[in-house]
Amino acid sequence: MSNFLNLLLLLLLCGCTRYTLGPPKDLHGLERFRLGSFVNKTFAPQLETQLKSDLLALFAKRQTHRIEEPAQAILDITLVDYKRIASVKQERQGLVPRAFTLEATVECSLRRFDGVAFKPKRIRACVELLRDSQALTAEYQSMPQLSALLAEKIYNALTDTW
């Protein structure tokens, strides 16, 4: 009986030898990549530039993967959708909405030089904002928050299992 328990314990421990805590150290052998094409199919050009700088800052801060040359793969990002959704928070509010949800969707793919590392994946981020009288000003001021959230989700999707 003790031989069986020892064998079972040995099998359990052997199965966990390669497991490590935390984010993956290498992305299937990829450590260096670069930002490739960044296509914007929306009417929000300020989101594109903000997202690029947020992604570069996030990769520099985390230091698990590097954006540098010579790159092993290319990260392509397409900004496919941007919506402003009006919402009424109170019944007596009437026809003028006081709250909006900003929603942005990107499609990311990671290309190795010898083929596709990860197939395109859609990532969506939402930010709620309240406004008083200047809806466009409030929307413009919420772009950095939406971009930072989207960059975080892109980074997590890239470094996690795709």
Which terms would index this structure?
5-stranded mixed β-sheet; 162 residues; Double Stranded RNA Binding Domain; 5 strands; alpha/beta
Set down the secondary structure blueprint:
Blueprint (H helix, E strand, L loop, with lengths): L1 H14 L16 E9 L4 H18 L3 E2 L5 E15 L11 E14 L2 E16 L4 H25 L3
Parallel strand pairs: 1-2, 1-3
Antiparallel strand pairs: 3-4, 4-5
Structure, explained:
- With 162 residues, the chain is α/β, with parallel strands linked by helices.
- It has a single domain (27-159), classed as 2-Layer Sandwich (Double Stranded RNA Binding Domain), CATH 3.30.160.150.
- 35% of the residues lie in helices and 35% in strands.
- It has helices spanning 2-15, 45-62, 135-159, and strands at 32-40, 66-67, 73-87, 99-112, 115-130.
- Helix 2 crosses helix 3 (135-159).
- It is extended.
- The two termini are 43 Å apart.
Give helix and strand order, one letter per element, not per position: HEHEEEEH
Number of strands: 5
Number of domains: 1
Strand order of the largest sheet: 2-1-3-4-5
The gross shape turns out to be: extended
CATH topology: Double Stranded RNA Binding Domain
CA-CA gap between termini: 43 Å
